[in-house]
Amino acid sequence: MQQAGRRKPVYTRKLDFRHGRVExxxxxxxxxxxxxxxxxxxxxxxxDYLRQMNDQACFPVGSGxxxxxxDCHVVTPLFFPGGDIxxxxxxxxxxxxxxxxxxPLYLSAGFILEEGLxxxxxxxxxxxxxxxxxxxxVPVITGDTKVVEQGSGDGVFITTTxxxxxxxxxxxxxxRAKPGDKxxxxxxxxxxxIAILLAREDFAFYGTxxxxxxxxxxxxxVMVQTAPDIHVLRDPTRGGxxxxxxxIAHQSGVGMMLYEHHIPVKEQxxxxxxxxxxxxxxxxxxxxxxxxxxxxxxxxxxxKMRAHPLGQNAAMIGEVIEDSHCFVQMETRFGGRRVxxxxxxxxxxxxx
Amino acid sequence: MKxxxxxxxxxxxxxxxxxxxxxxxxxxxxxxxxxCGGHTHAISRYGIPGLLPGNIHMIHGPxxxxxxxxxxxxxxxxxxxxxxxxxxxxxxxxLRVPTAQGDSLLKQKARGVDVRMIYSAADALQIxxxxxxxxxxxxxxxxxxxxxPTAVVIKQAQMLGLTNFTVFCNHVLTPSxxxxxxxxxxxxxxxxxxxxxFIGPAHVSTIIGSNPYAYFAEEFQKPVVIAGFxxxxxxxxxxxxxxxxxxxxxxxxxxxTRAVLPDGNIKAQRLVAEVFELRRSFEWRGLGAxxxxxxxxxSDFAAFDAERRFTLPVLSVADHKACxxxxxxxxxxxxxxxSIFGTxxxxxxxxxxxxxxxxxxxxxxxxxxxxxxxxxxxxxxxH
Lengths: 352, 383
Fold this sequence. Notes:
The structure holds two protein chains of two kinds. Chain A has helices at about 30-45, 50, 85-100, 120-135, 190-200, 215-225, 240-250, 265-275, 295-305; strands at about 65-75, 80, 85, 105-115, 140-150, 155-165, 180-185, 230-235, 255-260, 290-295, 315-320, 330, 335-340. By secondary structure, chain A is α+β, with helices and mostly antiparallel strands. Chain A folds into two domains: about 25-165, CATH 3.30.1330.10; about 180-340, Phosphoribosyl-aminoimidazole Synthetase, Chain A, domain 2, CATH 3.90.650. In chain A, the strands form three sheets. Chain A has a seven-stranded mixed sheet. In chain A, strands 1-6-4-5 form a four-stranded mixed sheet. A two-stranded antiparallel sheet of chain A has the order 2-3. In chain A, strand 12 (about 330) and strand 13 (about 335-340) form a beta hairpin. The longest helix of chain A is centred in the middle third of the chain and has 17 residues, at about 120-135. The termini of chain A are far apart. In chain B, helix 2 (about 35-45) runs parallel beside helix 16 (about 360-380) and helix 6 (about 120-130) packs parallel to helix 7. Chain B is globular and about 65 Å long. Chain B has helices at about 10-25, 35-45, 70-80, 90-95, 105-110, 120-130, 145-160, 175-185, 185-190, 205-210, 215-220, 230-245, 265-275, 305-310, 325-330, 360-380, and strands at about 30-35, 55-65, 85-90, 115-120, 135-140, 165-170, 195-200, 225, 250-255, 275-280, 280-285, 290, 295. By secondary structure, chain B is α/β, with parallel strands linked by helices. The chains are: A alpha+beta, B alpha/beta. The interface between A and B is large, with 30 and 52 residues.
């Protein structure tokens, strides 16, 4: 893995990935830091750009429109059913990039490590991140590591930035929703939020639910190929589909009408929400997207989405309507009508 | 979800809605109060008003645990939170309730005070066991539903011999609040507010049973129908109230028979009676001082009473000047009658307690029902 011409540094002791912990020295710019970068990060993310060991990565620029997005990842617990902060940090940024219809090209990664974090955990996270990046594939071509004192962090925070290129003729943007457009969702909502909640010890719930964390680049590629004129794509992460749809409604200056009985929700997710008085519409997703398209594209798009492994449960959940107040409304399964508002603060359990 | 979905069935809802429409007398209005915040939430969340004829008016009652807590008690809580060496714990919504100056337990937390959000009273006890060097105060709020769990943890703390656990008790009683509303001059003497019948609480009634409501039905000649928190429960209860009103009856009926017995949960009642006793009077936000409407910890458990352990002044603090929470809690005003509703006071920046919890009348209306206002505006403009 060492590039010809670069001399291998001599470390007095190997990194102890079984019992070792992150120390302040791992971020102080000395030999310990270089060793961590060398033996962990470069070993895992290995590519030509990284091996040059420059403070920046230098790459050629093609023609067309480029997109760039950055995403900070903080999650407790660091490892959860279906993923971990490592894979999440790749999927999160890649999904933000591809929601423009772009093909992801490169990633950068910034790590803030808390003193005392077991090196075994860090290794597991970095390797999971590398595997997620390779599966796409999108190389992590530059990065940075800092260490903060114990108590000043939550194990590890990861910020990733991504760059992608938008194919010719694709113009997907949140201000393009028009009255009459159809609203599609690529699958069941709230899986990530509830999986994280179950993984935390504060709740005495146990279940088999996994986070939906996944990179949506292939699904988006299929969708853009099927209907290049998709108006809006959005991955409904924090705040769930309620927040995403309210943002789009305001950016486009339109209203929306959702049909509750068309919104796919896993039984386990509804059950936990029911217990705690939560609403799946506000629960986070990490492997789902919302698409808004012209009515004539909707059925074709839905068929293609359902044929893709990450869109099997795709559904048409509503339509865009004219509304100067930009309300997102919902026809309830029960037959009534209500506003689906932005979340205020955190979702809190009901008292009685 | 078994046991729940059947009570949210849309086809059945339409069927009941047709029955309600058929049986409602078009020549009169029906003013029905849902006492409980759980019902307020269900009515708004499922869009029930849209399924009812225009002459049925739902009035939101004061049954929202955080809404009725007076400012003075909230100030006491903040004082407890600021006491060095203290950890205070409470349920989520409680942490967001604003004081007149806009302070809250959540804001105190951001300033470094140790405030913990808990999901059950048992969590508070656990925090006390884990932090033996600190005083842990559980800020207990709520109606009869949340009282038995508080009684359980007080008894457990005694059994464990904990010396660092106390409860700041703010538990209140539903029947006294209903009596107070019915006896208020606005309703009884002035006739300013019409109240024809009540939808009785769901969870509260599982504890106290249906018998305690017999007094209102008889004394005030108002029908009461106890209903579950699912939307079909509410629809069915409305139909039952309409039928009582149409035939001039004023009885206690139980729609929530799958959970509520006439005598309630005797075991829970005994537990509560063992640990708590009545306060002579307690201030409610919006209702003022209501005699025998709240509980305090009995002297046998004095060691676990935060009011005895700490010196807490009795404060009577006025609400924000423009806030109409008081009138809204009495059913005298609707959230839209408040001049700061949706402008200065929103769920993101609540000035009044009714805008905090999703069970509060203002928050429920803001979150779920606002479009009705605009529909009406648009209709008005068209004419």
